[in-house]
Amino acid sequence: TMSAAEDAEWLRWVTKQFRSIAGEDKEIDLEEFKTALQVKESFFAERFFALFDADGSGTISLEELLKALSLLVHGNEMDKLRFLFQVYDVDEPSLLPVWALRRIGVPALTRCGARSPRAGSGSIDPDELRVVLRWCLRESTIALPEERLGDLTLALFEAADKDHSGSITFEELREELEGFPEVMENLTISAASWLKPPPPAERSCRPRYLTRAYWHNHRSKLAFLGGYAGLNLLLFALAALRHAGFGGWLAVARGCGQCLNFNCAFLAVLMLRRCLTWLRATPIAKVLPLDQHVVFHQLVGYVVLALAAVHTGAHVANFSRLARQDGRHALAEYLLSARPGVGGLGGTASQTGLALQGLLAAMLAFSSPCVRRSGHFEVALGFPCFSSSVILHGPHFWKWFAVPGCLFALEKVVGLVWRRAGGLRIVEVNLLPSKVTHLVIERPRFFHYKPGDYVYLNIPAIAAYEWHPFTISSAPEQPETLWLHIRSLGQWTNKLYEYFQRPEWPSVEPKPLSRSLREKRCRRWAQVGADGAQLSADAECYIDGPYGTPTRRIFTSEHAVLIGAGIGITPFASILQSIMYRYRRRKQSCPSCHYSWCQDLGDEEMTLRKVDFIWINRDQKHFEWFVSLLTKLELEQAEQEPGGRFLEMHMYMTSALSKNDMKAIGLQMALDLLAAKEQRDSITGLRTRTQPGHPDWSKVFGKVAEEKRGKVQVFFCGSPALAKVIRAHCERFGFPFFKENF
């Protein structure tokens, strides 16, 4: 219900929007209405237009628009329901476009009938319902066969036709919708963003970074940053004080130089992926923010750039002062000539310092996002050259760099040996919807990893010297192969997809990994030994890893919430499989009565009590990437535990309109009814019902908090924009949030 002030503001907003849409003629025609309504298909635009156009003039005036919008924005439930019924009552010829009339067998010329456009037959028959549901599917970008459309029509019609008369009356529709009170309360045309004025911006008394929840959830990172800043200040102060008697510029230069000794060595520490992976399995992982090591590496890199600039500038200023005092040597001589006692190897500190400035500028340029996306980022791997130059420049840097430098060199040697130990066979390739390449790779001996870990992949046939990180999507308990799901988003990944798409590759039917929709919709190339075709010798690959990720914490959680957006499901695919392997080991059964129960695992193996898995996809075909895996997981969960279901899945399809939208309410009701009848979802084939639109995170996390199944931890892999939204909700509920780099 709107107040008088809100109603006046709404009227001003609609009037303003009307003038911007209508133009000089002060009337909105059908094409302008379609553009403003932002609908995908013409069917609903024409239906709404006919209902808005009360006088049947073919245009909508401001008065007609205000009357219709007033009903939709703040009308009562009965008004909205009557409008919805008129939308579905499509047998009135004057309300149908020509192509829809032909579909139900009505001649187009009857569009000129004299009846009021708002007057319908008063009932909805199965053919009318089928026409509307077909356009509902198109509006939500859901593709179903005609047979499935018939099933949906029958399910909704049988539920709504209470008296079995063969048609649905207004009263019967109202009675059916009473079972969806939350839908009727908010029923509107959600795509029409111009119906309501923009909501006022929420004002917070304190910035997010000053809230108690933020400091609690980021205490490890903030403590680390505080210690890092404090150590830099201490090093700067001590070095500057030692050289204070030689002038202010030299004191600043020496202070920055001491900080550079520490930061350049610390850069190497943050690049020790194998050591950091090992540390994740130790108690140190609970204290140090190891999950943010990539962010800290970038931060320290920028600190090095800033310190180097100040260090060089202070030295130039000091040399300029000395040149003025001396009078015999120009500034250029101080900068370009070796002078014993200045520092560096043979007094070349000035020359090596200038060279380092150029090298830093080149590293900054080649590590920029635009260069990395171009596929030429391998030229940015100049850290060994940089560290060698710093050793020549700074007389004491080697003391700082000795330990991390040796570890860095050792990791590189181990990686080189591992990479050159021999290529691995690509056992199978599946090309999935939306240009996703599923590689099944021979698993090397003694290759041990944790769920959610990633590897660096090199395929010489694609690019001989490029290594790219990808998450392992198979479980560690799978002994013979590794799975990688790679989406084509860049130059290298597109080349990979196109390489296996070439027509000269043999198309064979391998032994299926599982029965799923994927078997019907993806092309396969497989090496199946003596019974099938062989991939050519150049279709081998090399891997380097594994390396750990934040998702290793999942098995030490009590209630884990896993959120994957699109291909961000990849790390969770491995984790879910591993969970089910462990869950399977817990199950025990009595040989006599066949009663089954679950045996508790030790805390060191898995402390999980509940897992909520949320997968958000833009459209229907993306669910096919892992539908076979999810089907297996549902079969494992067919029998609930005494304490409730251990794994609960939630699927969201963002392109589908929500149940509150008039263009989708009938479809969503039919999908609900058919899913309840058949115990499977019509969109994915899973038992879990696919929900339309975006998750309501307040409700999702509120439900998780109410379950009280233990300490909740939220793990996310997806776009940075969605990560910010989920992180904010986690802070509000006090849930620790862990983000996979995506």
Automatic annotation (TrEMBL):
Pfam families: EF-hand_1, EF-hand_5, FAD_binding_8, NAD_binding_6. InterPro entries: EF-hand-dom_pair, EF_Hand_1_Ca_BS, EF_hand_dom, FAD-bd_8, FAD-bd_FR_type, Fe_red_NAD-bd_6, FNR_nucleotide-bd, RBOH/FRE. Keywords: Calcium, FAD, Flavoprotein, Membrane, Metal-binding, NADP, Oxidoreductase, Transmembrane, Transmembrane helix. GO terms for biological process: defense response; superoxide anion generation. The chain crosses the membrane at residues 222-241, 247-272, 293-314, 560-579. GO terms for cellular component: NADPH oxidase complex. Residues 419-553 form the FAD-binding FR-type domain. It comes from the Eukaryota. Gene3D superfamilies: EF-hand (1.10.238.10), Nucleotide-binding domain of ferredoxin-NADP reductase (FNR) module (3.40.50.80), Translation factors (2.40.30.10). One of its GO terms (molecular function) is calcium ion binding. Residues 40-75, 155-183 form the EF-hand domain. PANTHER family: NADPH OXIDASE, NADPH OXIDASE 5. This is NOX5 oxidase. It comes from Sagittarius serpentarius (Secretary bird). The lineage of its organism: Eukaryota, Metazoa, Chordata, Craniata, Vertebrata.
